[in-house]
Amino acid sequence: MTALSGQRAFITGGASGIGAEMARRFTREGAHVVVADVNDGLGKQVAVEVGGDFEHLDVTDRAAWDAVIAAHDPFDIVCLNAGVSTYQHVAGNVSNYPFEHLDDDKYERIMSINVDGVVHGARAVIPGMVARKTGHILVTASLAGIIAIPPDPIYGLTKHAMVGLVKSLGPALEPHGVCISALCPGFVDTPLVTDVTRDFIKAFSSDVLDVSIAGDLAMRALTERIAGSQWTVSYGHPIQQYVPTIPFV
Ligand SMILES: NC(=O)c1ccc[n+]([C@@H]2O[C@H](COP(=O)([O-])OP(=O)(O)OC[C@H]3O[C@@H](n4cnc5c(N)ncnc54)[C@H](O)[C@@H]3O)[C@@H](O)[C@H]2O)c1
Fold first, then answer.
1. What pLDDT band is residue 90 in, cutting at 50, 70 and 90?
2. Which of 37, 77, 190, 249 lies at a CB distance of 3.0 to 4.6 Å from 15, suitable for a disulfide?
3. Is 162's C-beta closer than 6 angstroms to any atom of ligand 1?
4. Residue 49 C-alpha to ligand 1 middle, in angstroms?
5. pLDDT tens-digit profile of 125-151?
């Protein structure tokens, strides 16, 4: 008997990086996984590899969310993981793109994927979980949802928004038997991290984490099952729950 034996998991952004790693780990732990992504080629590859299913889903499309969940529910675990950085596909040094010159297209793209996509997803899956009085939503935020990320302030904005959402939804969902928690890793070795960012990290004698940490982090959050919690890990530091030093409630 493995930890996720008989469970069903849905993972957005499951075609690559952290999402693909969670798909592999959850499968090894006994779950059936549905990989959802806009990248059909890679998404299908991951689904075949893990013996799961693939669904094309653009997380920014509210109607598509409802259709996909209606077709595949029930899920025990839903990972709202798809995300982008502001300058992921821009060549060169991001310091050449100061905040005040951020163009509308890039701003709207990151806000719609990193923020709207998670809100749409949560609204689509919560009713079923509440009705069944079970389920766990994992939101892939970032360490950039807790600490500063000067090279990409809008990315920091979206990830702080996710931590705020998870903190606030946690106690709202808990009485209904549903848990939501945030994954807050530091830099992980995925295509999201550009060469410029890698140089920036190395300048601080740090490095990216192997992507396998994503599976460990997700399993820790699922096992501990603490409403509204944030789970951090960064290079040279173990997985730990982030608990603010000044508790107000
Ligand atoms: N890599 C890191 O250092 C790091 C650290 C902390 C948090 N994160 C977060 O982890 C999550 C996954 O990132 P990753 O590093 O694995 O990056 P990645 O680029 O490897 O994977 C992101 C996936 O999201 C998909 N995606 C993009 N837009 C989408 C959309 N509109 N609808 C559906 N899918 C879409 C992509 O096709 C891709 O498969 C993101 O939310 C990211 O912000 C990454």
1. low
2. 37
3. no
4. 19
5. 999 999 999 999 999 999 999 999 888
Task: State the angle between helix axes of 17-28 and 40-50 in degrees (0 to 180), rounded to the nearest 10.
Answer: 20
Token pair for residue 215? 């599976």
Residue 203 confidence (pLDDT): 81
Domain ranges of the chain: 8-241
Tell me if the pTM is above 0.90.
yes
Which carries the bigger pLDDT value, residue 110 or residue 206? Answer: 110
Domain 8-241 maps to which CATH number in 3.40.50.720, 2.60.40.10, 3.40.50.2300, 3.40.50.11740?
3.40.50.720
Active centre residues (catalytic):
155
Q: Which residue shows structure tokens 């951090």?
A: 232
Q: Is the shortest distance between the CB of 232 and ligand 1 below 6 Å?
A: no
Residue 89 has pLDDT above 80, yes or no: no
Distance 67 CA to ligand 1 centre (A): 22
Among 10, 16, 78, 217, which is best to mutate for testing ligand 1, by the most ligand atoms less than 8 A from CB?
A: 16
Q: Environment class of residue 245 by beta-carbon count within 10 Å: exposed (0-12), middle (13-18) or buried (19+)?
A: exposed
Q: Is the Cβ–Cβ distance between 14 and 43 less than 8 Å?
A: yes
Q: Interior CA angle at 94 toward 91 and 98, to 5°?
A: 130
Q: What is the mean pLDDT of the chain?
A: 94
Tell me, rounded to whole angstroms, the distance of Cα 6 from its chain centroid: 22
The DSSP symbol for 240 reads: E
Mutate to test the pocket of ligand 1, among 192, 194, 207, 210 (most ligand atoms within 8 A of CB): 192
Ligand 1 centre to CA of 175 (Å) is 31
